[in-house]
Amino acid sequence: MRLTNADEWGVMSKRAVLEVIALDVEDAVAAQAGGADRLEVITDIAADGLTPPAGTVTAIHAAVDIPMRVMLRLTDGFEAGDLDRLAGLAHELRGAGADQFVLGFLDPHGEVDVYAVERIAAALDGCPWTFHRAIDHAADRDALRKQLDGMPGLDTYLTAGAATGVDDGLPTLLAEAARRGEPGYEQRILVGGGLRLDHLPRLLAAGLDAFHIGGAARPRGWDGPVCPAAVARWREVLDAG
């Protein structure tokens, strides 16, 4: 039986969460076999992840028991009608079995596009969602968090702490972890973006407990599938930490 949203965090509360990017059913099955707790389902990794077809979501939903969060992103920028299209896709994907999502919008000045976020969050009708790594390109991370404070469904920020990845973003991640519980900092931090196994000790010691991998789960690169053994190695290190 697939976990409900409440059960998801209740069951996982005593161990770190491992989220793995899946492009298709093969990836999803391999990620679950390796010990992933959740999937981020996308298409077109060359574009940093776009909304997958509803058929892919339906097939993954039928193939695995772990939760999935589905990307809502059409392009690198907005065009006329994109928000309406995304809202329609959100309804279609919910019908295909998705009940958790990933989204995030900035304006040309690097500030959060509150209108766009509100528009799509409303279409999700309370479904939980992650604000993705757009936060790492924001002009002011703290301002973004405070502007989105209280946004319905927002429970996670996917972030490397810097646009260039965890190597450069580690101080920011540690500082934000220390602010947990403050206004704008209640959401879970999901660390991802150039994340390596050697980063984990400091992150875990700081109380960070959710991690996101893509290429690290694919020893043959993005042209190859998710490898269960690679995922299992991350699971092993997290469980030992």
From TrEMBL:
Which InterPro entries does UniProt cross-reference here? CutC-like (IPR005627), CutC-like_dom_sf (IPR036822)
Q: Name one GO molecular function term.
A: copper ion binding
Q: Which domain of life is it from?
A: Bacteria
Protein family? Belongs to the CutC family.
Identify the PANTHER family for this entry. Answer: COPPER HOMEOSTASIS PROTEIN CUTC, COPPER HOMEOSTASIS PROTEIN CUTC HOMOLOG
Full protein name: Copper homeostasis protein cutC homolog
The species this protein was found in: Streptomyces glaucescens
